[in-house]
Specification:
By secondary structure, the chain is of the alpha/beta class. The chain folds into two domains: about 190 residues, 2-enoyl-CoA Hydratase, Chain A, domain 1; about 45 residues, Orthogonal Bundle (Lyase 2-enoyl-coa Hydratase, Chain  A, domain 2), CATH 1.10.12.10. About 50% of the residues lie in helices and about 15% in strands. It contains eleven helices and ten strands. The strands form two sheets. A six-stranded mixed β-sheet has the order 1-2-3-5-7-10, sandwiched between helices. Strands 4-6-8-9 form a four-stranded mixed β-sheet. Helix 1 links the parallel strand 2 and strand 3. Helix 5 packs across helix 6. The protein is globular and about 60 Å long.
Amino acid sequence: MAYQFVACEVKDKIAYVTITREKALNALNVEVIGEIRAIFNDVLKTDARIIIFTGAGRSFIAGADIAEMSDLPGQAGRDYTKVGMDLMDFVEAYRLPVIAAVNGFALGGGCEFAMACDIRIASTKAKFGQPELNLGIVPGFGGTQRLPRLVGKGMAKYLIMTGEMIDAAEAYRIGLVQKLVEPEQLLEEATKVAKTILGKAPIAVRLAKCAVNVAQNTDLTSGIAYELEAYQTTFNSLDRVEGMKAFVEKRSANFQDK
């Protein structure tokens, strides 16, 4: 499938996915959302075991495409935001880990996309915010739900109600991003983190991602029960045998995703 606004390169089991709608600051319209979902599905047909997602130019994703949304009637507006919301759910539940390499503006839907990723690494030039209230709407791609889970209820209310745009240093301070690097080091650092994850057992990585996702969507008792089942699945794997044998023999493990 040919893509107009998204590009992908797979190298050393890492898929580098870049949104390339640079003239619109990589804003998300229905077409772009469809291409992201399609290219993520195409990645599953390759040998990639992790995705690094970033934006071309000076923006990660500047938000949803307001020009496309502005003339929509009520029900059409709901349908539009449901498409975006479904994308974020898709990314969060995606089979492979997804690292957001946030190079610039991550506002509105862009911030929401970053939050749906598993790990966020930001350039010092990155900017974050949920400015939807300035437009007379609330965040509609999951922002009111994921932001408080990442930064706490009080900070989430502050950022959403004020619409304040924060810099990368503040995003790092409040826990919205996990690493902060200079712009020229962004993809290098994201690749370093990706390679660290690639060194782990693939089955364990997938189940750990699922278990942490479950933790934010259920009570502690149910989450612990899920963790026990995930643990048993990994313990029954050949990769667990290899991992423990390698540890005892003081060598690197050779995981096979089995």
